UniProtKB/TrEMBL annotation:
Pathway field: Cofactor biosynthesis; riboflavin biosynthesis; riboflavin from 2-hydroxy-3-oxobutyl phosphate and 5-amino-6-(D-ribitylamino)uracil: step 1/2
CDD domains, per the entry: Lumazine_synthase-I
GO cellular component, one term: riboflavin synthase complex
Binding-site positions, 5-amino-6-(D-ribitylamino)uracil: 24, 58-60, 82-84, 115
The protein's name in its UniProt record: 6,7-dimethyl-8-ribityllumazine synthase
Length: 158
């Protein structure tokens, strides 16, 4: 029988988790932050182990996540923001660059990086994804990080 691993349950490592949150569209991103932080606390991550950094916008998320993840005592990062489509294609360029940078950062550091960047067409869509009728992407992002942290503890090394 093949080995099978899951991070749904199990112990969490004793590590810091960084939440990097965009100030742009702050009425949305604060709700994402509240959801992520509470999810980490509910899972047993101690408050001093949760560090929050605020950046101007989505573009700055990867750089600050990288600063944390390159520290030995930070085991994961959650990037939170909201980019809402405007009259140009600017949002597409931001979303693509940030998503690729965050994915590459996780692969480079071998640490989980959650993509909690809302990429919405309207403010209404963002509201629904930050605690409205579609849930809270901050909570989902924190849950994903927790699951991967647990899973990494179970994977064979070497």
């Amino acid at each position: 029988m093949a080995a099978e691993f899951s991070g749904v349950d199990g112990d969490l490592p004793d590590t810091r988790v960084a939440i990097v949150v965009s100030r742009y569209n702050e009425s949305i991103t604060e709700k994402l932050l509240d959801g992520a932080r509470q999810t980490l606390l509910d899972a047993g991550i101690e408050a001093p182990q949760i560090v929050v950094a605020r950046v101007p916008g989505a573009w700055e998320l990867p750089l600050v996540c990288a600063s944390f993840l390159r520290q030995h005592n930070c085991g994961a990062a959650i990037a939170l923001g909201a980019v809402i489509r405007g009259e140009t294609t600017h949002d597409e360029h931001i979303n693509r660059a940030v998503s690729l940078a965050l994915m590459n950062l996780g692969l480079e550091t071998n640490k989980p990086v959650a993509f909690g960047l809302l990429t919405c067409n309207t403010v209404e869509q963002a509201i629904h994804r930050s605690g409205g009728n579609v849930g809270n992407k901050g909570i989902e992002s924190a849950e994903a990080v927790l699951e991967v942290l647990r899973l990494q503890r179970k994977l064979p090394s070497g």
